[in-house]
Amino acid sequence: MTPPALVLASASPRRRALLAQLGIPFEIEPPHVDETLLPGERAEAYVLRLARKKAEVVHARHRNATVLAADTSVVLNGAVLGKPGTVDEALQMLRGLSGRTHQVLTAVAVAGAGERLVTASVTFAPVSEAALRWYVSTGEPMDKAGAYAVQGIGAFLVERIEGSHSAVVGLPLVETLELLREAGYTLPWNDR
Protein backbone atom coordinates (compact mmCIF):
# COMPACT_ATOMS: atom_id res chain seq x y z
CA MET A 1 0.00 0.00 0.00
CA THR A 2 1.36 3.42 -0.98
CA PRO A 3 1.51 5.94 1.88
CA PRO A 4 -0.35 9.21 1.39
CA ALA A 5 1.53 11.89 -0.45
CA LEU A 6 3.50 14.45 1.51
CA VAL A 7 2.88 18.05 0.47
CA LEU A 8 5.27 20.78 1.59
CA ALA A 9 3.23 23.96 1.99
CA SER A 10 6.12 26.30 1.29
CA ALA A 11 7.82 28.21 -1.51
CA SER A 12 11.13 28.18 0.39
CA PRO A 13 14.00 26.55 -1.50
CA ARG A 14 15.75 26.07 1.86
CA ARG A 15 12.89 24.02 3.31
CA ARG A 16 12.69 22.02 0.09
CA ALA A 17 16.43 21.25 0.24
CA LEU A 18 16.35 20.21 3.91
CA LEU A 19 13.46 17.82 3.32
CA ALA A 20 14.94 16.45 0.08
CA GLN A 21 18.29 15.64 1.72
CA LEU A 22 16.45 13.09 3.89
CA GLY A 23 15.20 11.22 0.83
CA ILE A 24 11.56 11.86 1.65
CA PRO A 25 9.43 12.21 -1.50
CA PHE A 26 7.15 15.24 -1.50
CA GLU A 27 5.20 17.65 -3.64
CA ILE A 28 5.31 21.41 -3.25
CA GLU A 29 2.35 23.73 -3.02
CA PRO A 30 3.06 27.21 -1.70
CA PRO A 31 0.29 28.53 0.53
CA HIS A 32 -1.02 32.01 0.04
CA VAL A 33 -1.75 33.43 3.47
CA ASP A 34 -1.65 36.89 5.00
CA GLU A 35 1.56 37.06 7.05
CA THR A 36 0.72 40.30 8.86
CA LEU A 37 1.71 40.36 12.52
CA LEU A 38 -1.44 40.99 14.57
CA PRO A 39 -1.46 43.92 17.04
CA GLY A 40 0.09 42.81 20.31
CA GLU A 41 0.90 39.32 18.97
CA ARG A 42 3.99 37.75 20.50
CA ALA A 43 6.59 36.28 18.16
CA GLU A 44 5.98 32.71 19.39
CA ALA A 45 2.24 32.92 18.77
CA TYR A 46 2.85 34.55 15.39
CA VAL A 47 5.07 31.81 13.93
CA LEU A 48 2.84 29.04 15.34
CA ARG A 49 -0.27 30.69 13.87
CA LEU A 50 1.32 31.08 10.44
CA ALA A 51 2.69 27.53 10.28
CA ARG A 52 -0.71 26.13 11.31
CA LYS A 53 -2.59 28.36 8.84
CA LYS A 54 -0.27 27.43 5.94
CA ALA A 55 -0.78 23.72 6.66
CA GLU A 56 -4.56 24.12 6.91
CA VAL A 57 -4.88 26.14 3.69
CA VAL A 58 -2.98 23.58 1.62
CA HIS A 59 -4.63 20.62 3.38
CA ALA A 60 -8.03 21.94 2.28
CA ARG A 61 -6.89 21.29 -1.31
CA HIS A 62 -5.11 17.98 -0.54
CA ARG A 63 -7.40 16.14 1.89
CA ASN A 64 -5.75 12.73 1.40
CA ALA A 65 -2.20 14.00 1.83
CA THR A 66 0.01 14.72 4.79
CA VAL A 67 0.63 18.47 4.68
CA LEU A 68 3.73 20.00 6.26
CA ALA A 69 4.28 23.74 6.74
CA ALA A 70 6.69 25.98 8.61
CA ASP A 71 7.30 29.61 9.43
CA THR A 72 10.46 31.34 10.64
CA SER A 73 10.95 34.70 12.31
CA VAL A 74 14.04 36.54 13.46
CA VAL A 75 13.44 38.26 16.80
CA LEU A 76 15.61 40.97 18.34
CA ASN A 77 14.62 42.30 21.78
CA GLY A 78 11.08 40.97 21.31
CA ALA A 79 10.59 42.63 17.90
CA VAL A 80 9.92 40.44 14.85
CA LEU A 81 12.22 41.30 11.95
CA GLY A 82 10.46 40.34 8.74
CA LYS A 83 11.77 40.33 5.20
CA PRO A 84 13.20 43.72 4.24
CA GLY A 85 11.28 45.65 1.62
CA THR A 86 14.15 47.93 0.66
CA VAL A 87 17.94 48.05 0.74
CA ASP A 88 17.74 50.60 3.56
CA GLU A 89 15.52 48.28 5.62
CA ALA A 90 17.97 45.40 5.07
CA LEU A 91 20.89 47.57 6.20
CA GLN A 92 18.96 48.77 9.25
CA MET A 93 18.17 45.18 10.29
CA LEU A 94 21.74 44.01 9.78
CA ARG A 95 23.17 46.97 11.71
CA GLY A 96 20.85 46.08 14.61
CA LEU A 97 21.99 42.44 14.57
CA SER A 98 25.73 43.19 14.25
CA GLY A 99 27.65 42.15 17.37
CA ARG A 100 24.48 41.00 19.15
CA THR A 101 22.54 37.83 19.93
CA HIS A 102 19.02 37.36 18.59
CA GLN A 103 16.53 34.51 18.45
CA VAL A 104 15.30 32.60 15.43
CA LEU A 105 11.89 31.04 16.00
CA THR A 106 10.71 28.35 13.62
CA ALA A 107 7.32 26.70 13.94
CA VAL A 108 6.59 23.52 12.01
CA ALA A 109 3.06 22.13 11.60
CA VAL A 110 1.46 19.04 10.12
CA ALA A 111 -2.22 19.52 9.33
CA GLY A 112 -4.29 17.60 11.85
CA ALA A 113 -1.27 16.40 13.85
CA GLY A 114 -0.11 19.55 15.65
CA GLU A 115 2.86 21.83 15.66
CA ARG A 116 6.21 22.44 17.33
CA LEU A 117 8.11 25.62 18.10
CA VAL A 118 11.91 25.61 18.03
CA THR A 119 14.02 28.54 19.22
CA ALA A 120 17.71 29.01 18.47
CA SER A 121 20.00 31.83 19.55
CA VAL A 122 22.22 33.33 16.87
CA THR A 123 25.12 35.66 17.63
CA PHE A 124 26.47 37.92 14.92
CA ALA A 125 30.09 38.98 14.92
CA PRO A 126 30.62 42.75 14.87
CA VAL A 127 30.45 43.58 11.14
CA SER A 128 31.70 46.74 9.43
CA GLU A 129 29.39 49.03 7.51
CA ALA A 130 31.33 48.27 4.33
CA ALA A 131 30.80 44.52 4.79
CA LEU A 132 27.08 45.01 5.46
CA ARG A 133 26.70 47.18 2.34
CA TRP A 134 28.57 44.62 0.26
CA TYR A 135 26.36 41.83 1.60
CA VAL A 136 23.17 43.73 0.81
CA SER A 137 24.51 44.42 -2.71
CA THR A 138 24.56 40.64 -3.34
CA GLY A 139 20.75 40.66 -3.15
CA GLU A 140 20.66 37.68 -0.79
CA PRO A 141 19.14 39.54 2.19
CA MET A 142 16.11 40.81 0.30
CA ASP A 143 13.82 37.78 0.70
CA LYS A 144 15.08 36.54 4.06
CA ALA A 145 13.63 37.08 7.53
CA GLY A 146 16.06 39.32 9.40
CA ALA A 147 17.86 40.12 6.11
CA TYR A 148 20.33 37.21 6.17
CA ALA A 149 20.76 33.59 5.14
CA VAL A 150 22.88 31.44 7.45
CA GLN A 151 23.13 28.77 4.74
CA GLY A 152 24.33 31.26 2.14
CA ILE A 153 26.73 34.17 1.91
CA GLY A 154 25.32 35.46 5.21
CA ALA A 155 27.16 32.70 7.08
CA PHE A 156 30.10 35.12 7.38
CA LEU A 157 28.00 37.26 9.74
CA VAL A 158 27.33 34.46 12.23
CA GLU A 159 29.75 33.90 15.08
CA ARG A 160 27.73 31.27 16.95
CA ILE A 161 24.46 29.31 16.88
CA GLU A 162 23.00 27.79 20.03
CA GLY A 163 20.28 25.33 19.13
CA SER A 164 19.05 23.73 15.92
CA HIS A 165 20.93 24.80 12.80
CA SER A 166 18.17 23.39 10.56
CA ALA A 167 15.61 25.51 12.45
CA VAL A 168 17.66 28.62 11.68
CA VAL A 169 17.68 27.61 8.00
CA GLY A 170 13.89 27.19 8.15
CA LEU A 171 12.85 23.60 8.95
CA PRO A 172 13.74 21.96 12.28
CA LEU A 173 14.37 18.40 11.14
CA VAL A 174 14.09 16.56 14.48
CA GLU A 175 10.71 18.13 15.24
CA THR A 176 9.53 17.72 11.64
CA LEU A 177 10.22 13.99 11.74
CA GLU A 178 8.45 13.69 15.12
CA LEU A 179 5.34 15.35 13.70
CA LEU A 180 5.37 13.23 10.55
CA ARG A 181 5.60 10.05 12.67
CA GLU A 182 2.76 11.25 14.90
CA ALA A 183 0.66 11.94 11.79
CA GLY A 184 1.20 8.33 10.70
CA TYR A 185 3.44 9.22 7.78
CA THR A 186 5.79 6.36 6.86
CA LEU A 187 9.38 7.60 6.73
CA PRO A 188 11.83 5.98 4.26
CA TRP A 189 13.51 4.09 7.12
CA ASN A 190 10.14 3.08 8.63
CA ASP A 191 11.05 3.09 12.35
CA ARG A 192 7.51 3.32 13.70
Description:
The protein starts with 5 loop residues before the first strand and ends in a 10-residue tail after the last helix. Strand 3 (66-76) and strand 4 form a beta hairpin. The protein has one domain: Maf protein. Helices cover 31% and strands 23% of the residues. Helix 3 (87-97) crosses helix 4. The protein has 192 residues and is an alpha/beta fold. The radius of gyration is 17 Å and the shape is globular. The mean pLDDT is 94. Strands 1, 2, 3, 4, 5, 6 and 7 form a seven-stranded mixed beta sheet that branches.
Concise overview:
The chain has 192 residues and is of the alpha/beta class.
Strand content: 15-25%
The H-and-E topology, N to C, reads as: EHEHEEHEEHEHH
Instruction: Let me know the average pLDDT.
Output: 94
The number of helical elements comes to: 6
Tally of separate domains: 1
SSE topology:
Elements: E1 6-8, H1 13-20, E2 27-28, H2 43-59, E3 66-76, E4 79-81, H3 87-97, E5 101-110, E6 114-124, H4 129-137, E7 158-162, H5 165-169, H6 173-182
Helix pairs in contact: 3-4
